Amino acid sequence: MYTSEKAPAKINLTLDALRKRPDGYHDLEMVMTTVDLADRIDLMDLPYSGVMLESTSGLVPQDERNLAYLAAKLLQQKTGIDRGVKIKIYKHIPVAAGLAGGSSDAAATLRGCNRLWNLGLSLEELAEIGAEIGSDVPFCIYGDTALAEGRGEILTPILPPPSCWVVLAKPTHGVSTGDVFGKLQVDEITTHPNTRAMVDALHASSYEKVIANLGNVLEPVTIGLYPEVYKIKQKMEQFGADGVLMSGSGPTVFGLVRKESRAKRIVNGLRGFCDQVFAVRMLGA
């Protein structure tokens, strides 16, 4: 038996931290959506309970440190199934980039193994399991566009963004989400994104209001660690992006534009300044 799953990248249109929780995490408010840059996960049934994993990228671990590997093992534990899986990750999403590549791989593995092993679990049940792996995994189980609260596991579906192009640019270095959140001082945040205004902008399908309400409280923290992120933002604005923001904990910066010709111009302008640059469509639904 064999199955394949698509694992799309996500971007944050907003990311706000409200408070630090006793468990060390932060209470968050985020509007997240998916873009048409994706890993492919191929899954092959094994007649014994082992989990094997390989990836086309040498930058990701190929053992229990990989979230997709963890996802398969956790699903085995939760269901008591005695079958295994061979996982092959065809990596296209940049690693440690703020695009939830690892979380999306884990989500795709949960969906795929659920089908491969005929478990019959609902997306809601898979999302509950995914929340034990990482905060972005529940969103990646569903995909589409959502308001995410709590650690990111409390999801409210919302309408997708208006059709547009997304230019993604990742500097050479990756970023540790834990390091960025560790340096975030919630009581020192001076400007919070207007999450409600972003949700309203999406429901109104207003591209202009989406652009006006982009915001990410982690951006100043990551820029403090990696000034190159700010330079990429400046370049994107200079080359004509309508709205520019860092996604997640970074360091990937995205720019939104309406026309493909302008997206291509921004990509060409950033080549030579950035190793990994993509122009992709918004998915979102």
Number of helical elements: 10
| Low-pLDDT residue spans | none
Report how far apart the termini are.
29 Å
Q: What is the number of beta strands?
A: 11
User: Residue-averaged pLDDT, rounded?
Assistant: 94
> Structural class of the secondary structure composition?
alpha+beta
Radius of gyration: 19 Å
In sequence order, what are the helices and strands, one letter per element?
Answer: EEEHEHHHEEEHHHEHHEEHE
Estimate the helix proportion, in percent. 25-40%
How does the overall form come out from the CA principal axes? globular
Strand % is 25-35%
For the report, how would you describe the main beta sheet? 7 strands, mixed
What's this model, at a glance?
33% of the residues lie in helices and 30% in strands. It has 285 residues and is α+β, with helices and mostly antiparallel strands. Strand 5 (145-150) and strand 6 form a beta hairpin.
